[in-house]
Amino acid sequence: MHPARIRQTAVLLLLAGLLGACAGGGSSTTRSPALADLEAGRCPETIIFSGGQLPAEGKRYGRKATYTDLDNYRKLEIANCEQRLAAGDAGALKTLTVYWQNQKDPRREAEAYQIYLETGSDPEVKVAAIRTLYDLYSKGRPGLPADPEAAFYYMGQSVAYGDTHLRLDYADGLYSRKRYEEALGQYFEFQMPGLTVRQSEGFSKLQMCEVNLRLAEMYFKGRGTAKDPYLGYFFWQRGMDLADGPQWGSCYRDNFVYGNRYYEERERKQQIEIGMAKLSPSQVAELDRALAMPPEQGLAVAGSMAGGVGGRGTTRIERQSRVRYSTTSAGYRGWQGWQPLEGEICALSAPRNSLAWSDVFELRSTSVWSLKSASSEATSRGSAVAVAPDRLVTNCHLIQRPDSIELFQGSLRMRAQVTASDVEGDRCILAVNERMPSYVRAARPYGYLRVGEEVAAIGNPRGLDTSLSRGIVAQKRTNTGVSLIQTDAALSVGSSGGGLFDSAGNLVGITTFKVDDGENLNFAIAIDEFCR
């Protein structure tokens, strides 16, 4: 049990008997309405100040209150607010944090924010709490020493909730902790979409230079990814175009004043130049042509060279969000171009008559299938949702081979194949030759979803068939133009491709990814995207 909740229980029991003597204040035997509300568990907007003056504070619950009465009132106000906070009340959070700020007790203030992150549901309040915790732990206060690891944790939480201005610092922190795969994803997220200098969003030329050189280093050294000198060359040259000190491989005009920076960058430059020297003249010429193209097109060309210049391979760059930036060569066997869903599911005008969640599960679980796709190199497992007699939707990142897909549900087995794919958007539509025993007919549009409403995910986490997890719509977001639903409904490996349903059983999204370092930061692609 959280220490604050132990305290509140003890205080409530202690004060239950004490307040009878001060009902209405002092010698009065008439309990005031305000005192009755307090005894009933009310959390006020402000808490009686410790050591407050009788004329000012004494009128709250009775004119004849003594200092002892005020102290008892204050303790019960705090206990009531802590009890409400433990139930996720944002108003109680505000009351307590303002009080602890005035009392100069940052430890208790931080504790209140942490409790709300466990119990609260308002995403805006959570974002503010995370940013305050980051500030508290990064700077420290008397009574709450700076804690770099706690500050880093809340920095990651803030980035996960959309604070792009901390992303580069967070990526650098991941890199310094040798969490290379996560760092690679953050550096990519910092750039996407556009790969251009995003000064209009507050990112400087220096920051974009740093990101490109770090990506080059990671691809040349194989940190967080397989070694890829083609992408390494691409990002290195992009960084050099932005660098103020290209002669020593630095983004800074003068890096001699930054301690060991000069020596680190000189060593990096030497290593990368050795790697670039191994590229053939024709490969360098192809990469230079890619650098002259629009950035996204050039990246696609450089990425496709992993299978040789002009190769027909598929390059997939894993990102923190696990949405893959993909470049699939035309005509790759089995992958079909994107064609949106049609039919009943895309009417997107479903009514809302709430059901018990047990009924939602019984109605929809028979439309959710386990998926397995294997190649000679790997096997993927996840989920897929039937949305027509012969069609299912899922995530493309689950598909190892588009012509090798198996579906399972109890004793039922079916073969499926990809009939439409948008690999970059992670949208895949599957076709089966047999008629599905049941399928989802009703979907609710993204625009009608409300932050805070309840939803449930049905999928196959870690191979456990058709499991249900409940949560709320924590926020509605977009990423590279794709509508995403952020939810705290639990997702695990195998949940990808499953369904996210509202309380009426309408399909609202396809569960797609989670942020590994986040606290219940899970995302689904809005079902609308499969109809576009």
Search tags:
single chain, 532 residues, alpha+beta, six-stranded antiparallel β-barrel, 16 helices, 14 strands, 17% strand
Tally of contiguous helical segments:
16
User: Alpha-carbon distance between the termini?
Assistant: 48 Å
Principal-axis shape equals flat
Average pLDDT over all residues: 80
Estimate what percentage of residues fall within beta strands: 15-25%
**Over the alpha carbons, how many angstroms does the gyration radius reach?**
28 Å
Sequence stretches where pLDDT stays below 50 over 5 or more residues: 8-18, 20-29, 193-200, 307-333
Please report the total strand number as a whole number. Answer: 14
Largest sheet: 6 strands, antiparallel, barrel
Task: Please provide the ordered H/E string of secondary-structure elements.
Answer: HHHHHHHHHHHHHHHEEHEEEEEEEEEEEE
Going across the major beta sheet, what is the strand order? 3-4-5-8-7-6
Coarse structural class: alpha+beta
Helix content: 25-40%
Summarize the SSE layout with pairings.
Elements: H1 3-18, H2 33-39, H3 54-57, H4 67-86, H5 90-102, H6 106-119, H7 123-139, H8 148-160, H9 167-176, H10 180-191, H11 205-221, H12 229-242, H13 261-277, H14 281-292, H15 295-304, E1 314-317, E2 325-328, H16 357-364, E3 368-374, E4 379-388, E5 391-394, E6 405-409, E7 412-422, E8 427-432, E9 454-459, E10 467-479, E11 482-487, E12 499-502, E13 507-514, E14 522-526
